[in-house]
Write a structure and sequence with these properties.
alpha/beta; Nucleotidyltransferase, domain 5; 4 domains; 7 strands
């Protein structure tokens, strides 16, 4: 194999140890050294100093769980680090040892056969941690709320039948009264607003259940957990806001896109950064995110068009924003969703809208320009004759005779 880099290092990273293989020189004059280090910080410093002594410039390691993170943080300022996907660098079966893995990584790096994973600068990695922590709090909150509903249903308290949101102000107040031991239906419903979907009598009927003391204890504990999670979420959002201050301009740009909220904008910036030069094109970014169709053909046949694997956190944000954009009435994205949903499933359509949102984000951040709304009528203006023929055909399929006459403007 042709060798591109003269001085390289491959690191096989584990929880307790790191095996480092360095290769210096090319061809017959090439020499190799292998050393094993502990993952304690003082040993990582020894590793860094050793690599500096050997004048190593390029260092490759696999993205092994979270074990690569402290090593990357310590070495990123002194070396050209290559974080690579472990699936892309598998050695020949039967030759799996830590030493051989580090040597294999070093050989691939030296020959230029590795593909570097995108790792954003440290300020974005910190923002990522905060936003992903907030997401985990939201997931915990959903789980606790589901447990509350489960206890109510098991006690035949049918709040989910008479309230559209069991955790809305009115319903949540009723739950707290139940936990406090109030069982009188008049007291439980004395504050009901007339604007409630169900009548007072229906709500009282839904409250005739079998809630016992044990259930009240469980509900009280869960209410405390919900309150604690809400407080933690508020604190996390405050920290996110502080960390987003340097990127306020970029976030404001993204928030002009239909479907993108302030937290969605922060999540996107945390995952992809603001320097779009890291990605060759918008297509390259969507492929990295895993929100474009996979390329899986054999024998001239397409075997699958499932979206490829990518950044799962970014995918979730884009799909959520896609659902929000799909509900807008007078926007291009809303019209595009409705057009796609006629031909594909709603889920496929919303993934396509999520991809469009990422493409729009790429160009806005790269060119530093605001979002230009095309409007819901833009699609109809592209190919009016084709659209007219489509609707004529649909009417004929429904049993109508159609004669289309173009209106003179």
């Amino acid at each position: 194999m042709e060798e591109i880099y003269e001085r390289c290092c491959g690191l096989d990273v584990h929880r307790d140890t790191i095996v480092a293989c360095i290769m210096i020189g090319n061809g017959a004059s090439k020499r190799k050294q292998i050393r094993t280090f502990s993952t304690y910080t003082e040993d990582l410093v020894v590793l860094r100093d050793w690599l500096k002594e050997q004048s190593i410039r390029q260092v490759a390691m696999e993205s092994t769980g979270i074990y690569w993170t402290p090593i990357f943080d310590l070495l990123e300022h002194d070396f050209d680090l290559w974080l690579v996907n472990a699936r892309h660098v598998k050695n020949v079966p039967g030759r799996k040892t830590d030493v051989k893995d580090s040597e294999w990584l070093c050989r691939l790096l030296k020959s230029g056969l590795l593909s570097k994973s995108f790792v954003p600068p440290k300020e974005f990695r910190r923002l990522r941690k905060l936003i992903r922590y907030r997401q985990s709090l939201q997931q915990d909150l959903v789980r606790v709320k589901n447990r509350v509903i489960k206890i109510l249903e098991a006690s035949n308290i049918k709040l989910s039948r008479v309230f559209s949101d069991v955790f809305g102000l009115t319903s949540w107040t009723i739950i707290k009264k139940l936990v406090a031991g109030i069982s009188d239906l008049e007291q439980l419903t004395s504050f009901i607003d007339r604007r409630c979907r169900a009548s007072k009598e229906e709500i009282q009927k839904a409250l005739r259940g079998t809630l016992d003391e044990h259930d009240r204890i469980m509900l009280r504990l869960m209410i405390q957990q919900v309150n604690a999670l809400n407080l933690l979420t508020e604190e996390a959002e405050e920290q996110i806001k502080r960390n987003m201050a340097p990127f306020e301009e970029q976030a404001s740009l993204l928030e002009t896109i239909p479907g993108i909220s302030s937290i969605s904008a922060a999540s996107i910036i945390a995952e992809i950064g603001i320097d779009m030069e890291q990605f060759k094109s918008a297509g390259h970014l969507t492929a990295w995110a895993g929100i474009c169709p996979g390329n899986n053909t054999s024998g001239g046949k397409t075997l699958s068009t499932r979206i490829r694997k990518g950044n799962s956190h970014l995918k979730v944000v884009l799909v959520q924003a896609g659902w929000a954009a799909s509900k807008t009435k007078k926007s291009f994205l809303g019209a595009k969703y409705r057009s796609l949903a006629l031909r594909k499933s709603k889920k496929k359509a919303v993934v396509a809208i999520g991809r469009k949102l990422l493409v729009i984000t790429y160009h806005m951040l790269k060119d530093k320009r605001t979002y230009h709304e095309l409007g819901a009528d833009f699609l109809d203006s592209l190919e009016p004759e084709r659209k007219a023929k489509y609707h004529e055909k649909r009417l004929e399929e429904l049993g109508y005779y159609v004669t289309a006459v173009k209106r003179i403007a």
